[in-house]
Write a structure and sequence with these properties.
It is elongated and about 140 Å long. 7% of the residues are buried. The protein has a domain of 126 residues: Up-down Bundle (Methane Monooxygenase Hydroxylase, Chain G, domain 1), CATH 1.20.58. The longest helix has 92 residues. By secondary structure, it is mostly helical. It contains four helices and no strands. InterPro entries: Golgi_SNAP_su1. Keywords: Golgi apparatus, Membrane, Protein transport, Transmembrane, Transmembrane helix, Transport. GO terms for molecular function: SNAP receptor activity.
């Protein structure tokens, strides 16, 4: 029952984290599109509060699911430590460790995505404030000269370059994490292979000892049969 509950929570967490990641990814582009659509100051800066509320709601839901999954793992740990399951203790500990690893991965992914979202929101708010100051300066002065346009174009180019660099860094970090996980898997496989290689010599020596004992028993049995046959022949001739 605890494993079923843990799997249900893990499936819910997986779906929630996918939606949470999509929300964080689309946040910056949505804010950019909104600012391009409304270039004047008639629209409040906090028009993206719906996404912010959605982010807060999803973060609270994911934290609650993580808390429930942590409680289920603690209950499974208590069950494995109980006195009634000594023979299945190794298998249960393996299952418990697997669920703990899944919980740790989900927790790490949630905190990383949340931190990225907060960083993007802070940067977007800062850029929005700068853009608002620039546009207020333009509207206040009433001059659309060539220098201001060039400055705005350069600002857009710099922001696009910054976005591309951040996407490249995120891809590199994801690749690094995948390589690290693969290296851990290869290390575990290597340790298992070393354990099996260390066990085979002991098995071979045991088989050799068994063969030697069988051969010795065969020789002893043959000698006894031969002696008994000789004694019977001597008795028959006398």
């Amino acid at each position: 029952d605890l494993r079923k509950q843990a799997r249900q929570l893990e499936n819910e967490l997986d779906l929630k984290l996918v939606s949470f990641s999509k929300l964080c990814t689309s946040y910056s582009s949505t804010r950019d599109g909104r600012r391009d659509r409304y270039s004047s100051d008639t629209t409040p800066l906090l028009n993206g509060s719906s996404q912010d509320r959605m982010f807060e709601t999803m973060a609270v839901e994911i934290e609650q699911l993580l808390g429930k999954l942590t409680g289920i793992n603690d209950k499974m740990a208590e069950y494995t430590n109980s006195a009634g399951v000594p023979s299945l203790n190794a298998a249960l500990m393996h299952t418990l460790q697997r669920h703990r690893d899944i919980l740790q991965d989900y927790t790490h992914e949630f905190h990383k995505t949340k931190a990225n979202f907060l960083a993007i929101r802070e940067r977007e708010n800062l850029l929005g404030s700068v853009r608002k100051d620039i546009e207020s300066y333009k509207s206040g002065s009433g001059v659309n000269n060539r220098r201001t346009e060039l400055f705005l174009k350069e600002h857009e180019h710099l922001r696009n370059s910054d976005r591309l660099i951040e996407e490249t860094i995120s891809i590199a970090m994801a690749t690094k994490e995948n390589m690290t996980s693969q290296r851990g898997m290869l290390k575990s496989i290597q340790s298992k292979m070393n354990t099996l290689a260390n066990r085979f010599p002991a098995v071979n020596s045991l088989i050799q000892r068994i063969n030697l004992r069988k051969r010795r028993d065969s020789l002893i049995l043959g000698a006894i049969i031969g002696i008994c046959t000789i004694l019977l022949l001597l008795y028959a001739f006398h």
